């Protein structure tokens, strides 16, 4: 078990399944779990009631419902949870993003955060390096305007001379930017403009390696970053029950259908997705790359492709050990999302609530 002592608080977030990513059996569509206003609202309201700090509202073109519209509707139905709104850079022009984000910040009474996605625009294909340069330019302009500063910016993708809209006077600055990506271009983009660098599941030594690189990159721009971990979770009363739940989740998965699901995402060929594939290839016969990190969920998912699996103490300690490596925020999910949200809230969240760590004295379990 990881010892706790005075230090930094952890942020624990859940996931809203807005992009048709909810299953009882992975890869087997269930009409009752299809993304809709009512289904996804119930997940967010449940996460709010259980005391999660944040909830990720993902964005996709061909799947699910529009997350910006959803955020505006669900904010008044929640009390304390923050809304982590995914925004795909390039799909909207910067002035429109600024007005939308400022309006949502007002509706949510300051409980908004933004997950920057540097994805291809639907119907367009742009190489990785210019795509991240576009995101860097947009992030800068959007942040300047949200913080109430006029912009006079002339880049390769953004050419704009503009004062901020009046509504930004009514919010207390722009929301924090979360951002993830493993390629050199993605890391440079994050170092220049992100506040929280999100990582997909990996081994602790790899997580520490990426963090060290990002610390150095951010310092080169006179900045510092916080860090987040995005994964799935399967927690049951015993480890055997948790592993049985993992086996059940993929028990009806067809390999061809899984490949189709993985290919749906606009970022299905990214460096991060490739790293998730490497983890699956290096796992044991049941998909475990380490005792409590199971890669089976990545057989039918393009993004975060692994789950923390175990009993309540094991899941808690895995999270705390990752916090020691430097993770400040945990964006978690599970299948079905409403069911696993309740299980995690019952078994693990109370022990993580307001958890604080002294990273100089807490051991790391690898």
The total of helices stands at 12
Tell me the name of the CATH homologous superfamily.
Luciferase-like domain
Helix fraction?
Answer: 25-40%
Gross CATH architecture: Alpha-Beta Barrel
- At the first level of CATH, the class is Alpha Beta
Total strands:
15
Give a written overview of the molecule:
The protein has an eight-stranded parallel beta barrel, surrounded by eight helices. Strands 1-15 form a two-stranded antiparallel ribbon. Strands 6-7 form a two-stranded antiparallel ribbon. The protein has helices at 37-50, 67-74, 94-107, 128-146, 184-193, 204-220, 239-249, 255-263, 271-281, 312-325, 337-347, 349-352; strands spanning 8-9, 11-15, 54-57, 82-88, 112-117, 151-154, 159-162, 177-180, 196-199, 226-235, 288-290, 293-294, 307-310, 329-333, 356-357. The chain has a single domain (8-236, 307-357), classed as Luciferase-like domain (TIM Barrel). The chain is of the alpha/beta class. The protein starts with 7 loop residues before the first strand and ends in a 9-residue tail after the last strand. Helix 3 (94-107) crosses helix 4. The longest helix is centred in the middle third of the chain and has 19 residues, at 128-146. It is globular. Strand 9 (196-199), helix 6 and strand 10 form a beta-alpha-beta unit. The chain has twelve helices and 15 strands.
């Amino acid at each position: 078990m990881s010892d706790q002592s005075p230090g930094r608080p952890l942020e624990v977030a859940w996931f809203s399944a807005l992009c048709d990513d909810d299953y009882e059996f992975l890869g087997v569509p269930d009409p009752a779990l299809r993304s809709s206003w009512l289904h996804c609202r119930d997940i967010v309201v449940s996460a709010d009631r259980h005391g999660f700090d944040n909830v990720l509202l993902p964005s996709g073109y061909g799947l699910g419902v529009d997350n910006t519209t959803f955020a505006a509707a669900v904010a008044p139905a929640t009390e304390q949870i923050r809304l982590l709104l995914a925004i795909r850079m390039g799909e909207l022009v910067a002035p429109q993003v600024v007005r939308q984000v400022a309006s949502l910040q007002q509706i949510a009474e300051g409980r908004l955060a933004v997950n920057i996605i540097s994805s291809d625009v639907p119907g367009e294909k742009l190489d990785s390096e210019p795509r991240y340069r576009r995101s860097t330019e947009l992030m800068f302009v959007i942040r300047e305007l949200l913080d109430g500063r006029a912009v006079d910016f002339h880049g390769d993708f953004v050419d704009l001379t503009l004062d901020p809209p009046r509504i930004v006077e009514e919010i207390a600055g722009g929301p924090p930017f979360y951002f993830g990506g493993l390629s050199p271009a993605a890391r440079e983009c994050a170092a220049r403009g992100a506040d929280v660098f999100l990582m997909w599941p990996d081994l602790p030594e790899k997580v520490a390696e990426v963090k060290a690189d990002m610390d150095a990159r951010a310092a080169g721009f006179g900045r510092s970053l916080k860090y987040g971990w995005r994964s799935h979770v399967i927690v049951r009363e015993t480890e055997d029950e948790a592993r049985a739940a993992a086996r059940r989740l993929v028990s009806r998965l067809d390999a061809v259908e899984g490949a189709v699901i993985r290919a749906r995402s606009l970022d299905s060929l990214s460096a991060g997705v490739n790293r998730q594939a490497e983890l699956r290839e290096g796992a044991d016969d049941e998909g475990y790359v380490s005792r409590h990190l199971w890669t089976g969920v990545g057989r039918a998912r393009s993004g975060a492709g692994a789950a923390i699996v175990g009993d309540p103490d094991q899941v808690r300690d895995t999270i705390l050990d990752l916090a020691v490596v430097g993770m400040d925020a945990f964006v978690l999910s599970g299948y079905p999302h409403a069911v696993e949200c309740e299980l995690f809230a019952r078994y693990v969240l109370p022990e993580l609530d307001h958890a604080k760590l002294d990273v100089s004295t807490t051991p790391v379990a690898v």
